[in-house]
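Example record for the data management plan.
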Amino acid sequence: MPPDVFLYVARHGQTSLNAQRKFRGAADPPLDPTGLKEAQQLADLFKDIPLCHIFCSDKQRSVKTAEIISKDKGLPITRSAALNALDVGEFSGKKRTHETEASLQQYLDSPDQKIPGGESLSEFQSRIRPCLEEALHLYLHCGLPVLFVGHSSVIHEVGTLAKGSHQSVLVEPGGAVAVYYNLTNQKLDAEPIYKPLKSPRSQAETIT
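Corresponding structural encoding:
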């Protein structure tokens, strides 16, 4: 029996911090003009895909993306802080450089160590994983997949759980991933289903 798509995860559209290659984390920038176009492209993608519910983080970049997607679908949107990006604390708003990425990586390599002013990777995982379980329960109840509108760190976690590699299904802002559940072996899988065209420079996106 082939695995079923129980969840789609869409990454919010671009913001000024994405365009400037700065860490976002708990920062709350709005979508920029490119991000608004990307949100509409996601709306076009999901227009004919049946969904049972839409969840998004409480950051305005995710909320606006979710609102644009849901406009023609008539689906409720539930905002959840549990879907927020990894809180990178004092790194938020800083330019992504080799030095700052290496500094942040030290905390990611020690998942129980809290990022100064933020949270640890373990804390992030402990709030994201129950969201995935809830999406599966909703799917099994209503028979239609759920949509999460969130952040790259959520997609990193999907890649970790499904494929054992946090970068395995990463997409740029405005991209989307399908998450599968195999009822026979009770295993997850995932794959990108939409990758918006980006410049080579922006492909260095990593965790937040």
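Summary line stored alongside the record: The chain has a mean pLDDT of 92.
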